[in-house]
Batch of 3 targets.
Target 1
Amino acid sequence: MFRRALHCAVLPAVAACTVLYGSPAQAEEIPKAPGHRLITPYEGAPAASAPLPGEAPPQHPYLAPNGRSGMHSDAAGSATSPWPGPLGRDPEVTSEKIAALGGECATATFDSGGRLVTVCGTFTGFQVKLLEPRTLATLAEYRLPQRSSTVEAITSLDFGKIFKDTSGGAYFYLDDQDRAVLADSRQHVLRLAHSQNPDGSWKFTVDDDWDLTGHVPHDCVTWTNLRPSGTCDPVTSVMPDWDGRIWWVTRQGRVGTVDPATSLIRSVRLPGEEIQNSFSVARDGVSIVSDHALYSFRAAADGTPEVQWRQTYDRGTAAKPGSVNQGSGTTPDLFGDGYVAITDNADERMNVLVLRRGADVPADRRLVCKVPVFGAGASTTDNSLITWGNSIVVENNYGYENPTSVLLGRSVVGGVTRIDVRPDGSGCDPVWHSDVRAPSVVPKLSTANGLLYFYEKKPSVWGIDGWYLTAVDFRTGERRWSRLTGTGPLYDNNWAPVTLGPDGTAYIGVFNGIVAVRDR
């Protein structure tokens, strides 16, 4: 048993609570569905470590070190890790059940002591958690308010509202002082620190709380406001720029900044456009993709976002199964010699687009290449690309809507493709294609061992829903090994990423909590 104390600060319309654990809460394994003993627990063979040459993305001055700071690993959104993941040497699997229902830990970051700082979604609200990296035991938690989409889903019995909501803290980042920075469902930007008490327990504290409701419509559905008459515009994501301003975006196309030194808030609106993805930052600007166009922003002297350039893309005629909305599903990737990459939403075949991101690039020279990927009528992604050097890796999510899409042994058409930009920048070429079936994961590349990591759902004629961590050779596209993590919908990652930890562990957020895979 463990001892815990609950400390709540009463804020407008919500109680924000820190749970203090006198001793770590013991991890409870996520239950497996029947059939896990009837399918192969391990396929392939251990891989040899083969580090990749090249330079890592620039280290952002206001983020935790690359690989530790957020869902997409760094400010550039590269989805790469500077340390090795498991090589497949008799890998062991552990898990933690976060809640009786739900509990998915989407973004995992690592503080300077190697502890996990993560946000886990439950039906009662999101929880910021501090986890011990080996046992996955909870050291402390901070409870965020419930999202309006959860209230709507429960009252209407339409749980698709939850699965297509990217707001409320799922996209957060860890800053250079180990603080979690996020936007909660009240349209507040919080900066949360964690520290150890004299008795050895841990706690979260709110260092800063910036209220965006003067800039963002906030008449949202709650249990005390089931039929709002106004507008609710959830904040999707936050990221700092190179000067330390905190940028934020909303679902309905608002783009804003907070100056942490003065608390000055500025914003603009992209009329008729929607932003459901996170965004990336470099010294030369902030790259944001809406459901209509790719943007490069900078801040004016007073912090107001200004458009440096805008590039439309083919958004197709409708959202596809496997995408959140009718538009690009990717966070922009900043890579190579001043490139930015996204995907479009073209009807027949999705395209990978590479553009030059300089503010002074002529419009007719902006596009470097447009490469169609995957099969006709079965091609989309709602996850970040992976970029390293001049290479891009893209995953096909066509057919995945929510956990019911892959029940009873079903899977998706799948596919992964690597594309390289030519050294002279004259175009792009496909390098290899893999048949890996990763329904919805944000994959990762370890540059320390040369392996790509996917979370795979293999079809089963027996109706068994087995989920695997799969390693693929970055150079060749060859599948190296797959390790079963569990069976049943509780092991579905439902859009959460693979995250590689500093100790070589691969973590995957799943529907009921978090899974860890490491070499023995």
Target 2
Amino acid sequence: MRHLPPRTTHRRILGALATALLCAGGLAAPAAARDAGPRAAPQLDNGLALTPPMGFNNWNSTGCRAEFNESMVKGIADIFVDKGLKAAGYQYVNLDDCWALPQRDANGELVPDPVRFPNGIKAVADYVHSKGLKLGIYTSAGTKTCNSAGFPGGLGHEYSDARQFADWGVDYLKYDNCNNQGVDAVQRYTTMRDALEATGRPIVYSICEWGSNKPWEWAADVGNLWRTTGDISDSWGSMLSIMKQNLPLASAAGPGHWNDPDMLEVGNGGMTDTEYRTHFSMWSVMASPLLIGSDLRKATPETFDIVTNSEVIAVDQDPLGKQGTVLSSEGGRWVVSKEMADGSRTIALFNETGTAQHIATTAQAVGLPKAAAYTQRDLWKHQSFNTAGTVSATVPAHGTVLLRVTADKKWATNPPAVELGLDSGPLVEAGGTVDLTTTVTDLGRTPALQVSAALTGPAGWEVAPASATSKTVLPTGTALTTKWKVTAPAGTAVGAYDFTLSAAYRSPAGVRVKSRLPFQGSVVVPPPAGSSYLGDLPWMSSSNGWGPVERNTSNGESAAGDGKPITLGGTVYAKGIGAHADSSIEYYTGGRCSSVSAQVGVDDEKSAKGTVTFEIWADGKKVAATGVLTTAMPAQPLSADVSGAQVVRLVVTDGGDGNDSDHADWADARLSC
């Protein structure tokens, strides 16, 4: 932990350093910095952002395109009101880069682009304020912003820029990190803090230095929120990597000072609705700022349903201000618990893997007192149940079950919680039949009555029970277990197919409850005998941190097919798989294969950055792994015995430092069967 001097002394020291360093670097120190004299001690206790800020940022939806203009921003404010976002708690309509001209005026002041904003920023702020909302703006703690057009940054102009922002009626500043000239981060961000405070206007201060200098260690008395990672992108791998970096920082967060894992991607199209619900759930459990990054002008009803879920938002906005902490994460089965102001706990059961998983904890394990039973509220189903203490669910692939559990005396008014489970998603060859076992388990203190189960599959498939599908009564902790025969029609194409396990039951008070568990089964082909290149074989599923997984080339960039020859340490490989952390690729091996082998490392297409680890999993167990590999290291051999495994999974993680430039090659990857 970096130890800072007392605030008043700290600010005087930094003020002197700022003037000296800026002048030495050829940058004019602002007049206010030269003339202001002693000021009162800082207060970041500034009374702002006592809960995580909620709003919108335009960058992901418009970038620097011409459509980013006054009309668009006013339209977003209208949507906030018309679509219920304002009512749900969203306040800030934030402008990102490209709002200004590339040059300051003769007085050194920022000039709004007269084409984009013909009436200036104040007119936009006035309109947003007329809707009962607030306006945010962007600049960088450098000589220029991050856009290649070279818009002016705030370094050396902090006081005059802050004064302009305040005069325009700005309520929120996002302060980026580009073109920072190597000036110390604490100094740069503290100077703008002081400049904002000197305006006398309450302006939420968002530090966007990408986690490069560990702001969670020093920024609590500098900004209201600070980015903990690099930029998010609209992919499962990117979201997952950022979540994993942000989760360990829970102790740094609290009212007025929040960890910021970047804006929401919900609705941008690169993930499924299940994945977007996970994204929104986990950001809320982490007490993260909720800044919508999708184009609200084109958002679907499903997107609005996710981002306006009042029960999930209440988790994020809980006044206690605790960030959720990780209780377990074994095998990609995460339990994250967040303490709430009313004494309850919100529990995220999050499934990182590509197949449905049973994830469990207990009420006492998350810190609730011992009790006869508890009330358990499902925040996506909007239903309440009673539980005897077990908190568990079978969670769909990439899904999250979000539960709020309370030790109260009203538990008996709710029906018992039940968990729908299965031994695994069916893996079946076309024309073949497989067995599947499902369970309906009573987790409640009260019995479940008249319990029935049903299983449905794709049209044309045969799904038939091979044992009982109902029970008159399920006491606490007991289950209805049903065996099924699942047959795929001959000629069915290889791929994933949707199934649904349904259950119905009655509480002792007569309340009827219906529950559903969607999951996927796969039509697979047996692996060929002998040694085969994995880049030539069909995979069951794949996810990637940047663009798609590529066959027999490097990952390249975000477009499909843009990879280059796989190259590790100057050696070119004709065969292999190009991935990017965080990545997961699943192959059906059907118990017929003996080993997987590859040469692994960070592709030469990234010459400086890149830190990854490689893992091989067999039927949910890690059977081989490397340590952290860097761009500077040669290819490393990695192999594993996968005898008897039905499914083999190749995993790349980010090495614990974010997934920037983590281009990972499974070179010469082979499967022996």
Target 3
Amino acid sequence: MTTTGQRRTGWLRQLMPGLDVAAKYQGSWFGKDIVAGIVLATLLVPQGMAYAELAGLPPITGLYTTVLCLLAYAIFGPSRILVLGPDSSLGPMIAATVLPLVASDGDPQKAVVLASMLALVGVIMILASVAKLGFIADLISKPTMIGYMNGLAVTILVGQLPKLFGFSVSGEGFIGDLVGFVQGLAGGEAVVAAAAVGIAGIVLILALQRWLPKVPSVLVMVVLAIGAASVFGLADRGVSLVGELPQGFPPFTIPFLEFSDFALMFAGALGIALVSLTDTISTASSFAARSGEEIRGNQEMIGIGAANLAAGLFQGFPVSTSGSRTAVAERSGSKTQLTGVTGAVLILLMLVLLPGLFRNLPQPALAAIVITASISLADIPGTRRLWQQRKTEFNLSIAAFLGVTLLGVLPGIGIAVGLSILNIFRRAWWPYETVIGRVPGVEGFHDVHFHPDAKHLPGLVIYRFDAPLFFANVRPFRENVRRLARAEPKPRWIVIAAEPITDVDTTAADVLLELDVELNAQGTSLVFAELKHGVREKIERYELTRQIDPRHFYRTIDAAVAAYMAETGAQWSPGE
């Protein structure tokens, strides 16, 4: 093969990791992948239908989505173990974006088209990968993500309660759904048989997951629910059934969007992309740590983007990684993405040959699947840990929780991102700052808050500011230094212990110059010690080393202290 051909092949394998896996595939993996794929398919079908209904779409679209995303990720995804598909965390976001746009006519086909258009969020993910924007997955901090997921769990649970009890409500959002559910119960709208199936389904799934985790709990519940529908004639008792699914597979379709719908769809797409990427990279990191794989963030963005794009072109909707389904594949012995391909092929065969397989599946059973999935989203131990360890981050988590439950899913993700960013600014705006001194018997200089007995040379203050200096925090920095300069007895030197200062912008440089002039007029010198090399270069570029006395820059705090002692004759007390 020529050098050009080798380069082309290498580039293709980098873009499509599935080709590389296929080239290195080991025969001993085949049986394990096939068995894991069969086990996985039994979980993918009911969950795909359930999460489609959670998104306000026909159940069949969940199966279309599952097939296409698995096939696309097998080619473009870098992880050998991750399983993608419809997800409980994205369902409410899809519904919140799509359903308001079809509220006037209630056209389910238009909802499918809009959801397919939303799945083209994959283009955003692929472009973000090309631009090396994988860091955007870090825009939601863990405390706000915990609060968001807790709010999402409660919202999903309450939204599914009417379906679990066999009736529907017209309310919108958490409050509307809760009020509608209570009013429906009070009005006698609940169907006893539906409630019995739904509640029994929840208990069965949770019990099997707790005591027999290797048993496919969702499959067992679905089989028993279908059997109960046939034996007890649940349809005649007022229980809604899934009915026969359309036979075959949808054609390649390019969805179109009306301009008037663009704003809400774009906002929803951004929120979905952020949650999907955050979830995917987090899940990939968790499983990679166990298998020894290396995380390739930008390639993961291409993989998840391609999966969404493929789903959107065949009447599907946005997808994400599923930690629970990935765990099932791993426990079943999965070695490569052939597991996902096997699951996709089995679902495809079912659609072509056995479309009526799930026609007697009760709708409350699908609600039970969604509710148990929502319970797994909640992180109560994590919330409790935030309360015990850091109240500020607990408050951020609660704010994100309230944002989702009170304002809705899409505003909630905006609030979560906004709170995370504000928390970053808060830490940089009001960073930790302190005076440091020498502690008898301990080397170096230490925080007076933790060492009240720290000693100081007469007329010398050593001040530490634990953040980069930039436009937003340089004025609080200046006020702190001014406060130290007004102390009695008046300091002759204020030494800035600058090692924690990782940057100085032009606004901060101007303020430092003004502060130096101001303190000089008062008989106090502003001195810097331990400036990082990169920061010192910026200081020189700003010409501060020419305008501030060059002798007032020292490599270490000890050097600054020695210079002060030489200039003033100050001495440490004996024993210090």
